[in-house]
Amino acid sequence: MEELNVDNILKNGERIEDLGLKNLKIIQNPEYFCFGMDAVLLSWFVSKKTKGAIDIIDLGTGTGIIPLLLYGKTQANSITGIEIQEPLVEMARRSMELNGLSDQIRIIHGDIKKPGDEILPNSYDVVVSNPPYMRAQGGLKNKQDTKTISRHEVLCNIEDILVFSKRMLRDRGRLFLVHRPERLGDIIFLMRSYKIEVKHLQFVYSAITKEANLVLIEGRKSGRPGMKTDPPLIVYDEKGQYTDEIYKIYGMKKPE
């Protein structure tokens, strides 16, 4: 494969970030919503709960971080990302080109509420989403701003994700989410309303003395009732350094 000229693939304000996983890289722009730890933890959670040649779709893929991480961490048969914001779609596609993965990872410009003909019902084993955490509020100044759309339920909410998942997942297919613990009651209620049963939860704590600030969720379409909670995931130890588990998740060596 001919090596790409990085100067030709990057635009003003963009940088390339090494993901530390199988030489994968992603294009980022600080003016847009850059990926954070929640995307990394969600990808890890999916990879430890899934096996084999599965078909995966990531809803609200942004710049394509979750498809890239899942490509590196799973044996997926196919990976698709759908994103409504055209500038992010274009950037994600360039990241796939940068990695030589344009054929392996499809990035679709579309709305999960009207997914179009490219996405077929009952055709995915796994739906993944790192959705906006905050409810849309009337006082938002610019509802078209990329960061606003990424953080607030302006164009997509939990119910939209569940409508999509119920329709597009194969029977017994799984939905994976990362969200804020304070929204968990509503999420569990809505998932059951759409015949997606919560099977596993894992709470994430910034420190052992703090309240949980993230929760990783696995649901199964047409699943039987019965939920388990995985051991808590602690990000920082008492010295303010990453815990051994976080270093392992990031594929980093802990400093001596």
TrEMBL record:
Which keywords describe this protein according to UniProt? Methyltransferase, Transferase
One GO biological process term: methylation
InterPro entries on file: DNA_methylase_N6_adenine_CS, SAM-dependent_MTases_sf, Small_mtfrase_dom, tRNA_Adenine-N(6)_MTase
Q: Which residues form the signal peptide?
A: none
Family matches, as Gene3D superfamilies: Vaccinia Virus protein VP39
Does Cell membrane count among this protein's keywords?
no
In this protein, which residues make up the domain named Methyltransferase small? 41-179
Indicate yes or no for the key word Methyltransferase.
yes
Q: Name one GO molecular function term.
A: methyltransferase activity
Q: Which Pfam families match?
A: MTS
Concerning PANTHER family, the annotation shows: TRNA1(VAL) (ADENINE(37)-N6)-METHYLTRANSFERASE (PTHR47739:SF1)
The protein here is known as Methyltransferase
User: Organism source for this protein?
Assistant: Acetobacterium fimetarium
Classification lineage: Bacteria, Bacillati, Bacillota, Clostridia, Eubacteriales
